[in-house]
C-alpha cells in the first residue's frame, strides 16, 4: 500500500560509491519508495547551481531555438526566483534543421510527444544517449542473443545524438561562425548525463543494501556470513546505456510553431521489439488507471485541472527527475485513491522506481504510477529526466529465493531488451 505525504521523510542523503553506503540511508530510501512512491535524494554531485543552470538553458533551447516564442509567451525561468538575462538576438532553427534533428523513435534527438490534451498541447522533448564512437556496440549483444542478423539490427541502434545540427547552427545577425550557446548546451547535457549515471548507480547500491541482497555462494544461495552485495545491480547497468531527456511543456493554449507537428506522436504505449524466440513482454499501456478509477483524463475548461502527461509508469530501473520550481508532478496514493502533488526541492533529485526494478524485486518495489498536471495559470513547465536503463542483454529475474516465495517460480525471467521500444 502506498501513501503519499508532503513530508521531509522523502528526503535522503546518500554517499558516493559502495564504501559510503549506509544501512540508515538505504532503509530510508527503500521505505520512501515503498510508502510514498518516490524519494528525494541529495548526493555530493547534485548542486543547486547545476540544476538551476540546466533549467535555464533548457528553457532557452526550447523557447527561443525550437519554438521561437515571443517574450510575451515565454515564461521566465523560476529557478531561484530570478529572471533570466536580457534577451539577445537568436536565430531560431529552420524547418530543415528541425527535420534533421528529429528522431523517429523518441531516442537520441528531438521529438514532439502528443499526449493527454492533443496536438495543441504537445510536449517538446530532446533525448540524449550515452556518447560513444559507435552507439551500436551498446546494444549489439542483445540482438545477437535474440537471433537478429547484423543487417537487421544495426540500422536500429547505430543512430548517434545529432549534435552536428546544433553545433552548425549559425549565430544571429548574419555574423560568421556558429551559435556558441549550442556548444555550451551540449557540454552541459553530456556532463549532466555522466552525473546522473553516477548518482543512479549509487541509488541502486542503496536499494541493494536496503533489500538485504548478499553475495551468492558457489552453490547459488546467499552467503549468510558475507556483507551486503552493494553492487548487485551495477553489472546489469555497467554500459550506462541510458536516456536523458529535456522536456518542455509550452504555455497552455500556445499553438505549435507553424501549425505543424514535428517528430513522433506517441498515443497509447510504445512499440516493442519482438525477439526471434520467446514472446516479448508487453509494454505497459499508458492509458491504464489504478483501481479502475478514471482520474487521468479530467481535461475540462479549468486549466488547473488539465492533465498534460497521461498516467504512466516509467520503463526504467529508476528515474531521476529534476523539475523546475513550478512543479506539476503527481503520484498515485493507494490509501486516498487519488493523485497527490509532489513537492519541489531545488537541491535534490526526485527518484522513482521503474518497471525493471518492480520486476527484479517481484513487486516489492512497485513502479510508481504518476502523471503531470498543468501548473498554476497554465504556465510553461521544464523538466530534465534521466531514465536509468539496464543493459539490453541484462537478465531480469526476481531477487527473492525460491524457498522464500514459491509463487515467484511462475515469473519467467526475460532480457531487458525484450521490453525496450524499437531503437531504444
Automatic annotation (TrEMBL):
<dbReference type="InterPro" id="IPR044861">
    <property type="entry name" value="IPNS-like_FE2OG_OXY"/>
</dbReference>
<feature type="compositionally biased region" description="Low complexity">
    <location>
        <begin position="285"/>
        <end position="302"/>
    </location>
</feature>
<keyword id="KW-0479">Metal-binding</keyword>
<feature type="domain" description="Fe2OG dioxygenase">
    <location>
        <begin position="278"/>
        <end position="390"/>
    </location>
</feature>
<protein>
    <submittedName>
        <fullName>2OG-Fe(II) oxygenase</fullName>
    </submittedName>
</protein>
<keyword id="KW-0560">Oxidoreductase</keyword>
<dbReference type="InterPro" id="IPR005123">
    <property type="entry name" value="Oxoglu/Fe-dep_dioxygenase_dom"/>
</dbReference>
<dbReference type="InterPro" id="IPR027443">
    <property type="entry name" value="IPNS-like_sf"/>
</dbReference>
<dbReference type="GO" id="GO:0046872">
    <property type="term" value="F:metal ion binding"/>
</dbReference>
<dbReference type="InterPro" id="IPR050231">
    <property type="entry name" value="Iron_ascorbate_oxido_reductase"/>
</dbReference>
<dbReference type="Pfam" id="PF03171">
    <property type="entry name" value="2OG-FeII_Oxy"/>
</dbReference>
<comment type="similarity">
    <text>Belongs to the iron/ascorbate-dependent oxidoreductase family.</text>
</comment>
<keyword id="KW-0408">Iron</keyword>
<dbReference type="GO" id="GO:0016491">
    <property type="term" value="F:oxidoreductase activity"/>
</dbReference>
<feature type="region of interest" description="Disordered">
    <location>
        <begin position="277"/>
        <end position="305"/>
    </location>
</feature>
Amino acid at each position: 500500500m502506498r501513501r503519499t505525504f508532503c513530508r521531509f521523510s522523502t528526503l535522503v542523503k546518500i554517499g558516493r560509491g559502495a564504501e559510503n553506503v549506509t544501512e540508515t540511508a538505504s532503509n530510508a530510501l527503500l521505505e520512501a519508495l515503498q510508502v510514498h512512491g518516490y524519494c528525494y535524494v541529495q548526493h555530493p554531485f547534485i548542486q543547486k547551481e547545476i540544476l538551476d543552470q540546466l533549467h535555464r538553458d533548457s528553457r532557452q533551447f526550447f523557447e527561443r531555438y525550437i519554438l521561437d516564442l515571443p517574450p510575451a509567451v515565454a515564461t521566465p525561468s523560476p529557478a531561484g526566483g530570478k529572471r533570466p538575462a536580457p534577451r539577445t538576438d537568436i536565430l531560431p532553427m529552420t524547418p530543415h534543421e528541425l527535420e534533421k534533428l528529429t528522431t523517429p523513435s523518441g531516442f537520441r534527438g528531438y521529438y514532439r510527444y502528443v499526449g493527454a490534451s492533443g496536438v495543441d498541447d504537445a510536449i517538446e522533448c530532446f533525448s540524449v544517449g550515452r556518447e560513444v564512437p559507435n552507439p551500436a556496440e551498446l546494444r549489439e549483444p542483445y540482438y545477437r542473443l535474440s537471433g537478429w542478423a547484423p543487417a537487421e539490427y544495426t540500422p536500429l541502434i547505430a543512430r548517434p545524438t545529432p549534435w552536428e545540427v546544433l553545433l552548425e547552427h549559425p549565430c544571429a545577425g548574419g555574423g560568421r561562425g556558429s551559435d556558441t550557446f549550442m556548444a555550451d548546451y551540449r557540454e552541459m547535457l553530456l556532463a549532466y548525463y555522466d552525473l546522473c549515471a553516477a548518482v543512479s548507480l549509487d541509488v541502486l547500491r542503496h536499494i541493494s543494501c536496503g533489500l538485504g541482497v548478499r553475495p551468492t555462494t558457489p552453490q547459488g544461495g546467499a552467503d549468510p556470513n558475507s556483507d551486503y552485495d552493494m553492487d548487485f545491480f551495477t553489472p546489469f547497468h555497467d554500459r550506462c546505456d541510458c536516456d536523458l531527456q529535456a522536456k518542455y511543456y509550452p504555455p497552455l493554449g500556445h499553438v505549435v510553431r507553424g501549425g505543424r507537428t514535428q517528430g513522433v506522436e506517441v498515443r497509447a504505449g510504445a512499440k516493442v521489439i519482438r525477439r526471434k524466440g520467446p514472446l516479448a513482454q508487453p509494454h505497459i499501456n499508458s492509458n491504464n488507471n489504478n483501481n479502475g478509477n478514471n482520474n487521468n483524463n479530467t481535461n475540462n475548461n479549468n486549466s488547473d485541472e488539465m492533465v498534460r502527461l497521461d498516467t504512466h509508469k516509467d520503463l526504467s530501473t529508476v528515474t531521476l527527475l529534476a523539475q523546475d520550481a513550478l512543479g506539476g508532478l503527481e503520484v498515485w496514493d493507494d490509501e486516498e485513491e487519488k493523485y497527490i502533488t509532489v513537492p519541489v526541492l531545488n537541491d535534490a533529485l526526485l527518484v522513482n522506481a521503474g518497471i525493471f526494478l518492480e520486476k527484479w524485486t517481484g513487486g516489492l518495489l512497485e513502479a510508481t504510477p504518476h502523471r503531470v498536471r498543468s501548473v498554476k495559470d497554465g504556465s510553461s513547465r521544464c523538466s530534465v529526466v534521466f531514465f536509468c536503463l539496464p543493459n539490453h542483454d541484462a537478465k531480469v529475474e526476481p531477487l527473492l529465493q525460491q524457498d522464500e516465495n514459491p509463487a515467484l517460480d511462475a515469473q519467467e525471467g526475460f532480457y531487458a531488451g525484450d521490453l525496450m521500444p524499437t531503437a531504444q
